[in-house]
Amino acid sequence: MQTQQPSDDQTENCTTDFKEGVTQRGFPRVEFSDFYNERCSVQVSSLADTPAIWLGMDHPKAQILKDGNWKPVTLPEGAQLSGRMHLSHQQVKKLLPYLMAFVETGDLLRKATATRPKPQLVAEIKKTSKYAHQANFMRNSCTYTYPFACAIDSDGGGEYVVKGGIGGQYRLADVNLYVIAEGRKIRLK
Q1: Whole-model pTM?
Q2: 186: buried, middle or exposed (CB in 10 Å: 19+, 13-18, 0-12)?
Q3: Which of 3, 57, 136, 164 is most buried, judging by how many CB atoms fall within 10 Å of its CB?
Q4: What are 62-82's pLDDT values in tens digits?
């Protein structure tokens, strides 16, 4: 399964406000929205004997997949949904390498590396390309990174050798190629 390459702060346009505050009982809390604009938070737990946090959706929805669509479900009186994880300090510590691997590689199971990252080939669609509108879509999308990670691969003798991005493949004439190395974007000519 191919993973979407992660983006850095300069290329990702999926932004959410993180609001810091405290609960009514004075515990630190950070509120934010997830990818689907659901309200979420992380807050320090009130457990007395173990440092812990609560993390997850504030108001999860009960839904059922019916005829290919998600439909709301009415819960019986007194029923409650929980969309939050209660994580100990040790659990968060063990989870962090997976989250860092996702930040660095776009994959949970590739271990985050402490070594210098390898150079990455990326592409930007030229303003003169018939695919220029796709660049704007990727810039404004939370799903795609821009410039997008790519690879050069033959398409059996055709022109569409740049693989990646929302279109899946582009001609060399449609893109500018760059190498990202040590935080610098270097154009290839």
Answers
A1: 0.51
A2: exposed
A3: 164
A4: 999 999 999 999 999 999 888
